[in-house]
Amino acid sequence: MKLSIVIGMAYFVYHRLTNNQRLDIDIFWETIQNNRVFHVNNILVLLLLSALNWILEGLKWKALTASLKRISFKDAMEQSLGALTASLLTPNRIGEYGAKVVYYSKNHRKKVLFLNLWSNMLQMSVTIILGAIGLYFFLSHFEVAIDYYRILRSVAILIAIVVAGLFGLRHRRLQIKGFSFQKIKEFVQKMTLRLHIQAWALSLLRYATFSFQFFFLLQMFGITLTYFEAMMLITSMYLIASLVPTVFIFDVVIRGGAAVWLFGFMQINELTILCITSLMWLLNFVLPSVFGSYYVLNFNAWKTDNE
């Protein structure tokens, strides 16, 4: 099973690179070579930013799991990268939840599921907050045809569903697999405010890291945007891409499409943006998943159960 996960991941990455209808693989390599992406200094900076991205994720996971069990930074990285590899083929990386719980004994697994959910919610909150700010400035700078009536109607329906759900939770004890809403609430309250702030700060730093990496790639490809202009578009792109459910292996397509549309308002070449989004995908997901493959292949379920 471990071998099939790694082989499946490798096949889908290969298939995604060689069967991209919007970006031919030969044109992609030629474009990045012409822009000196493979220059030693550029490679070092890009790899450093990718490493920092996942180091911050490992630190966040280490901090969150301390409420259950103290693990080393090495273990946190192993769990994060191993889960990335196992979840690469699943919709919205949902396989990450199942992958991380296998590193813990059965009596901790429900709490690990919630901790992983909480970690992703913190990261999503950063994306939504900064994305909303970026989208506000974007809409202030450009005339965009938007059906506000449809948006307001959708928001109203969403608010009604949330309100109805919260009302139901207050008057009924919701329980899923023995994990009730009350237990979740108590578990959150047991986590210190300092821990919440620390995890959110690490999420913010991680967002700053990969968004700056995108900005750095723009500069490498000769796109002369100010940092404010670039971040206005980058934060809007991540917001739009994050709100669209998709199989994760096609995440680069969604972000590429959103990026092409947004950067098109700045008259930036579509090929350049598609190359940058593909490089971001390779650097921050495909490359780390290669390291994660080592952890998947060396995973020992018997050892986990004994611990």
List the helices and strands and how they pair.
Layout: H1 2-18, H2 25-34, H3 40-65, H4 73-87, H5 95-101, H6 109-141, H7 148-171, E1 175-176, E2 179-180, H8 181-190, H9 193-220, H10 227-242, H11 251-264, H12 270-297, H13 301-306
Antiparallel strand pairs: 1-2
Name the structural class: mainly alpha
* End-to-end distance: 22 Å
Instruction: List low-confidence stretches.
Output: none
The biggest beta sheet, please? Answer: 2 strands, antiparallel
Radius of gyration: 21 Å
Shape: globular
Number of strands: 2
Number of helices: 13
Helix content: over 70%
Portion in strands: under 5%
Mean pLDDT: 80
Write the element-wise H/E pattern from the N-terminal end onward: HHHHHHHEEHHHHHH
Overall domain count:
1
Largest sheet strand order: 1-2
Subcellular location: Cell membrane
Keywords: Cell membrane, Membrane, Transmembrane, Transmembrane helix
InterPro entries: L-PG_synthase/AglD
Protein name: Lysylphosphatidylglycerol synthase domain-containing protein
